[in-house]
Amino acid sequence: MSEPASYLDDTPVGPTRKRVVRFVVALLLLQLVVPLSYYLRTGDPYDERFAWRMFSAVRLHSCRTSATERVGEADREIALSSTLHQAWVNHLARNRRDVVLAFLEARCEEEGVREVSLTNACTAPDGEPIAPQVYRRVCESGELTLPDEAALSTTTGRRR
Amino acid sequence: MTLFERYLFARVDSVRPWLLQRLFLVLFAFDCWVDHASHAGRYGFGGFNVAHFGWLDALAPTPSPGIYVGTILLAGLVAFAMAMTRPSRIGLGIVFALYTYGWAMSMLDSYQHHYLLSFVLLAMTFFPRLVRDDVFPVASERGVRVGGALLAYGLLELVVGIAGGQTPLGLFGPGNHLPTPAWIWLVRGSLALLGGLLAFLPKEAPKEAPKDDTKIAPRAEPIAPSVEAPKGKRKKGKKQSKLQAPSSPSADELVAKKAGKDASKGSASFAASRKLSIPTPNTVAWGYVLLTMTTAIVYFYTAITKMTGDWREGHALRRLGQSELLLGLESYVTTEGLPLFGTMAAATFWKLLGTGAILVQIVACVAYLLAPLADAPSSTKLRRWLPLFALAPLSFHLLTEVGLVLEIGWFSYYMLLMAFVVLAPARWLRVLGEGWSELSAKLAHHAQRIPTPARAGLMLAALALAGFTIDLPGALVATTLAALLALIGIAVALRDGLPLAGGGLAGATALSGLLLALAISQSEVRFDYYRFLGGEHRRHDEPVEALAAYEKANEHVLRPHCLYRGREVIECYRSEERARAIAAEHGLELRRRDRESEAEQMRRLIETRGASGSSGAGEDG
């Protein structure tokens, strides 16, 4: 542990100074690019985690969640509240895609389950209903069907 | 040197990074201890988890309540110890890593401000490693210090009181969610006013230096050779500050000037002498500048987010602003009207608020970008106007806390603190900071008499007390790891010939352990943790586990007598008589909040199932 001559005088000099500048620039670029990617990318419009979109219109969608699975030839309802912790059910209702996909995958591991689907029937903050968000996984092939994000473009502010 | 480098390495008044780091870390520690742990029961429940990053799912173990609580409590313990000593980069790096892992381990924690806190902690890792003596090389007069302490406390009472938080004075009232009696507001205001008068009102300069100024203040070694300072004004053994602003005189020059002035003009006004006498060391603090730029970026993007039609038209705020304050304001402007504006439609009112929120974010963004330049000697105009910019973030976050119905933890307090320390005039911060830290400096000074091994023993005792009494999973591991980390830190300090630094770390960690135990035992963390857990086991038809959790919750309930309005809990009290009296006064219903009835239901369910021979899912556990 080397102590500086003065704790007030700890200005980086020489190569250290260059490293500091590079580090700060990289960190700032990261902070600018990560939220920007939300607006530019296509993909999950509900994934606002690193976009500084607190209290956005998407976050205020209100959804009713239901899930079914096909065992043999019959479809059966999944009682979400007694299957997962309520906090995860809330995430499903917020269309957190990673959570939904993990849930579908976990259900597919149950014996005899051939297909799992989860549906969120949502309304926008102004009360207008949005097209149901349906996620489906065929267990054997792993084939996924994801909802069409076009219906959400007006409330996310994202580029189409 | 490029323009960016000039900006990044701009000199700022040392009081800003020092005060921000200290207050932020203390706030952060208590946030970790009393606000984060209560929901830990959901981690790993049913073996299901999704981390924020896929690679964490692959590498790290599936989170459990123990892992989450342990990580968060340890982050708080180390943060508090760092706030009370000369912080080390390794210590602050550990806080950053623990906290970041704390939220990243599971999407259960998806608060965006926790992600922001990680950036703040990372930036603080690179703050100058200052302690009080670096920032205040010469002590102010006693009156100023006392005034500063009173003003700091009065402001804390006022701001937290307005925001609806709990304060020591607030304990004399009916609680946070019922109207605070006028006398409490009067005392709060008087304390702030008295403090302000003592600290800022011009007065006669003292003829001789206060005795306090000659005391040896706690400091880190090794002691640099100090320059001869005027008798009684310079702290003994004070390290020489090299980094004064190029155009400003050094601390010693200022001290010498003050001494000469005092001798020749004994009656110079305090305000005038203060301007000359108190050196204000500045420093290059690129970590601090990184933090202000980070904050500016956040405000920039939050402004962008709010530019959607939903916000501009005020729909979003209308939904979030269903509080007594904003609904009352809406009613007022639609019926009584505002001066100049007259009455307006409710839709216009919400639209104005929504648009105003966007404007506030933009102003805050600009203010944070300009802030690092304000302490330069040539920035007179910026220095004068920047505090006005502070009104934007301060009013926004205060209104968020008071007027919007949100669940954002302590976020508003972090942002209020940041806005105040970054944007307020440095002179105010110096007065408040010196007064605020006076007590801890005196305590540290007295604690120096205790030898380091004894302090290390006290530290182990305090951490053991916390670990064994907290009764939350992971707590004992957290305190054990804190002890290990502190012992390593002490050993390194002793090896490097810094016994005072080692002793300081031991003392700070001991205090951290004691405050952790106190914070947990005097808050509802454990009650909340176990009642949430019980509720979830109950939903999953696991009566045995639910009963165990409910029984624990009942052991830890502190304020079982609660006042309800419908299903909404308004306030809870330890004493049933007090609760009954306040319920009668405010027309509220008094009910018990503990989980006795739920526990009884679970007992009956277990008995019924036992008698009928059926096996519920819970009986397997």
Task: Tell me about this structure.
Helices cover 32% and strands 21% of the residues of chain A. Chain A contains 4 helices and 5 strands. Chain A has helices spanning 14-40, 86-93, 97-108, 153-156; strands at 62-71, 74-77, 113-123, 133-138, 144-145. Chain A is elongated. In chain A, 31% of the residues are buried. The model of chain A has no long low-confidence stretch (mean pLDDT 86). In chain B, 63% of the residues lie in helices and 3% in strands. Chain B has helices spanning 3-8, 15-36, 54-59, 65-83, 89-104, 112-125, 132-135, 142-162, 182-200, 251-264, 270-277, 286-305, 309-312, 315-320, 324-335, 346-370, 380-403, 411-423, 426-447, 452-469, 475-495, 499-521, 525-539, 543-556, 576-586, 596-612; strands at 11-13, 282-284, 561-565, 568-573, 589-592. In chain B, a hairpin with a 2-residue loop joins strand 3 (561-565) and strand 4. Chains A and B meet through helix 1, helix 2, helix 3 and helix 4 of A and helix 1, helix 6, strand 2, helix 12 and helix 13 of B.
